[in-house]
Amino acid sequence: xxxxxxxxxxxxxxxxxxxxxxxxxxxxxxxxxxxxxxxxxxxxxxxxxxxxxxxxxxxxxxxxxxxxxxxxxxxxxxxxxxxxxxxxxxxxxxxxxxxxxxxxxxxxxxxxxxxxxxxxxxxxxxxxxxxxxxxxxxxxxxxxxxxxxxxxxxxxxxxxxxxxxxxxxxxxxxxxxxxxxxxxxxxxxxxxxxxxxxxxxxxxxxxxxxxxxxxxxxxxxxxxxxxxxxxxxxxxxxxxxxxxxxxxxxxxxxxxxxxxxxxxxxxxxxxxxxxxxxxxxxxxxxxxxxxxxxxxxxxxxxxxxxxxxxxxxxxxxxxxxxxxxxxxxxxxxxxxxxxxxxxxxxxxxxxxxxxxxxxxxxxxxxxxxxxxxxxxxxxxxxxxxxxxxxxxxxxxxxxxxxxxxxxxxxxxxxxxxxxxxxxxxxxxxxxxxxxxxxxxxxxxxxxxxxxxxxxxxxxxxxx
Length: 463
What we know:
Elements (H helix, E strand, L loop, with lengths): L7 E3 H10 L40 E3 L18 E7 L5 E7 L17 E8 L8 E2 L5 E9 L7 E7 L5 H8 L1 H14 L12 H17 L12 H7 L7 H6 L8 H11 L4 H16 L9 H12 L5 H9 L7 H14 L4 H15 L1 H16 L5 H10 L11 H12 L4 H17 L3 H8 L10
Helix pairs in contact: 3-5, 4-7, 10-12, 11-12, 11-13, 12-13, 14-16, 15-16, 16-17
């Protein structure tokens, strides 16, 4: 059995984070959205509040069919992984998502499991991690993240792989800058005036479509995969006389005596700028598989978002951090948020005070029926001995102490407790003991907790 001891996130939260994670633009905090655990901003944190850079790309992914594999649902749980590769049409970052499960373990193979997956980060190679990111033979920066579902009855694992663009900005400029294309075409017209008479100068889309054709033929149609004549009209107008202005670029892509298939597949995805709707759907289907069960949406989800914006001033990040710390999204129903709280506590009990604060705060923010349902869960947690960080601060104040007083010892705290206990009524004693127990539990002090749990007749006052 895997021992997690680390916070996780629901599958819908992971999907949202995938769209918001931009390796090229890390936030001011240096926090890694896909690997670092909550709290996003611990209590009394005085550093920058940015957890997603304002320059980060909000990805628009389309899938790459040649690098994807989605088994049919009727195949059953054969152990075959679902893998979909995609590229962002905005920043050209590449993403590969793989979902796997162990045959015969956990839930039977169906389109959706009977729960929303709660995914815990296990390992990876990425910026700021124990193992650094890798570099591909083509110079791409590669980051990897691996997760497991925390439900003991579920064997689902999810792996993510981000890769920086194949072509750098200078190479993209060679293919798309209108002035560069015009100059290159004019040189070709001057070198071969008769042959190119009447040929129009190419536009950026012409260049990309022609490059796409060459790559498609090399990869997908061996019958049409043949040498390209250096005096071919389209080739010259797009890539210059004998292709010399683009020689380094073409060789980088593998256009030589031996085709570099992987590089061509990546660039084909970039050049393939048409028919994106079906490929977008394919990527969406994979995200459904990551999510697992179709989670219930809160009826007033739009209102909740508006409340966060107006009442908490969204730029402060505090409101959405309650959701992120619990590993949920803002439009989740209260029942799903409560279940996520229970999962977080089960896999990461040391951070229970953080998670209870988040649950309590979300209930207050939502109010109404959702707020009442969440408050019931909060009261259950309190009855089980759980507490928030603010409750610990209040516990110190109860005894006239300060939580950040470094001079406090077990003896001084217990002595203060006995002094208070001697002046309390039988009705007040229960509350006094509860406050001491919270201090002891937060300090990991068995001695303080034992003093709080002793009955009146068993107390032994320190001499």
